[in-house]
Each structure stands twice: as C-alpha cells, then as structure tokens.
Amino acid sequence: MGKMNHIPLTGTEVGNLWMAYQDKTMLMRFLDHFLEHTEEDSIKQLLQYSKGQSVEAINTIKTIFEQEGAAIPVGFTEGDVMKGTPKLFDFLYEVMFLHMITKIETNLFALYSTMSYRQDIRAFFKQLTANAQDVFDRCVQLLLEKGVLSRPPYVSLPKEVSFVQKKDYLSGFKLLKEKRSLNTIELSLIHHAIETNLSGMQLMMGFAQVAQDKDVKKYFIKGMKLSKEIETTLGEYLRKDYIEPPATHAGKATNSTVAPFSDKIMIYVTSLLTTFGLGSNALGGAFSLRSDLPLTMATLTPKVYAFAKEGGELMIEKGWMEEPPQVEDREQLTK
Fold it and tell me: Which of 13, 101, 166, 250 could form a disulfide with 92 if both were Cys (CB 3.0 to 4.6 A apart)?
C-alpha cells in the first residue's frame, strides 16, 4: 500500500483503522487458543488461513499509522491468551466462533469502506471485506458438511406476484382471529438473530466458568440469561408457525474452569457481539411488516443496550478500555 502524504487520514479513517486493529488482534488471540487444541486438518487449515489474513491486516494498519506518525494501538497481545490451558469449547466451536466473527466483520468492513475517502484505505477495507466473506463462506461450508449448522426452513415458492390488499397485514395483534404467518423477510431476520444468540450463549457460558474477576463473572452470567431470553422470545414466533428454531448439538462449552483468555479480551468480544446484536434488533424491527415483531424487538433492545453499557463501565472501572484517537479539544486548547 503506497504512502499518500499529500492526503492525510480523515478522523473517520483513523477511527475505523483503529477499530479494525482491535478486532484483528482479538481474533488472533482466539485463533492461537483454538489452534493449540485443534487436531482435524480441515479445521486447522481454516484457522491458519484466517490467522494469516489477520497477521497481514495488522501489519498493514501498523504501516499506515507509522507512515502517518500516529501511535500504534495496543489492541490485544499474547498476554491476553494463556498457553497450556485446557480447551474451553468442544468440537467445532472454533469454526462456529469464526463463522460468527466473520459475519460481523463482513458487515463492519463493508461499512468502513463506504466511510473512507482515501483510495488506499478504501482498497484496504474492500480487501478486508472480501477476506471476511471468504472465511465466512468456508466456515459455512465446513459446518454444513459436519451437519451442525441448521439451515433456515424451506417454504413453498410463490407461483405469482401478489400485493397486500388489507391494512391488517401490518397488524400482529388480532384478538378474535389468528395472526398472519411470518413472511420470508421476517423469517430470515428471526433465524439470523437466534443463530447468533445460540453461539453467543455458549460463549457466555464458557466465559462465566473461567472469568477471574467476580464482577466480570456476574456480567457473563447475565449475558447467558439474556441470550437465552432472546432465543426463547424470538423462537416463539417460529413455533407459532410450526417451525422449529435453529439448534445445534456441537460447539458447547466444556467443563473447564481454567481461563485461557484474559478477562479484558473476553469482555471486549462480548461488547462486540452485543453491539452487533443491537444493530440486528434494529434491522429486524425496521424490516418487519408485522407490528408485534418490532414491539418485541423494542422490548429486547433496552435490555441489550443496558448489558452493553454495563460492559463498557466494567472495562473502564478495571482499566481495560483503550481510548480511541480523539478529536482535538478546542476549548481546552484555547484556554
């Protein structure tokens, strides 16, 4: 990536590069733990492939910051993962975790590319988006081949185009007659939310078992319960249409109580997933044409937001929150 001294980085580009550095250094530490315990060649190759991409991305961001005279973020280091510790999650969770993280990365990096103006930064985030999509595809294929990823339900394909005729199509509250069945857009958003929460719930279980700080442990227990509440609440929408919510027999937390990760990195991952969950809830509510589903999302969102806020407060209290680059404080500078 060439140096572009004549065009300085914008504040947005600095912030997005900083966020990408946090994400990639976090993923590196989890891949270190997973690779220590992975024996199956197909899984090991996938994890090593993802790790190679992460190393390349981290080095590129370092180079950009060095060229611009900016401080290199700390992110997450080898001190955030403990080697020689027991496996925290059982068979295939490493692929399920990577599937979940690359799903988030695909969305974030695509957004970052549209927020960038310098050509090299746009190209960098476009490449990161393509890389995340590539690893995501590989994860999906492997999980499908292993039979542990639940496909969304099949539906009868429409034979003709139709238009909504009655306003009560938008209503989810019908006291005297049955609610209409879910449309495929609503179905896809519910399935996505449940699938993500199932992986998140196992993550919270494992984290709660090994967290060293008692306040952090309580926080992860709250996360377990919140994930279960979201899965149960949204699952009812599927069950009412005689559709079983997604489930998997693999990727469970083991019975280990020895921490392979620092409390700091575990809270960061939880914060990342929670923030993504807030966005998913907003998306689900916005694209639903049944009034009861947005109301349910609106009920869950404050709980997810409160959980995210508590995590941020914990990180600050424990001195674990690295401060992003700041905009100049003009009031302070002019005193």
Answer: 250
Residue 83 has, within 13 A of its CA and on its CB side, a CA count of: 6
C-alpha span between 287 and 284 (Å, rounded):
6
Asked if 217 contacts 208 with a C-beta cutoff of 8 angstroms, the reply is: yes
Give the tens place of pLDDT for each residue, 114-147.
999 999 999 999 999 999 999 999 999 999 999 8
Q: What's the full length of the chain, in residues?
A: 335
Three-state secondary structure readout of 201-219: HHHHHHHHHHCCCHHHHHH
Q: Is-contact 300 212, C-beta < 8 A?
A: no
Residue among 272, 270, 260 nearest 212 (CA)? 260
Q: Round to whole Å and give the CA distance between 26 and 75.
A: 7
The 10s digit of each residue's pLDDT in 280-318 is 666 666 666 677 787 888 888 899 999 999 999 999 999
Residues 27, 80: Cα–Cα separation, whole Å = 11
All structural domains of the chain, each given as residue ranges with its CATH number in brackets, are 11-146 (1.20.1260.10), 167-318 (1.20.1260.10)
Q: How far apart are CA 251 and CA 90, in angstroms?
A: 5
> Is 312 buried (19+), middle (13-18) or exposed (0-12) by CB count in 10 A?
middle
How many Cα atoms occupy the beta-carbon half-sphere of 262 within 13 Å?
Answer: 15
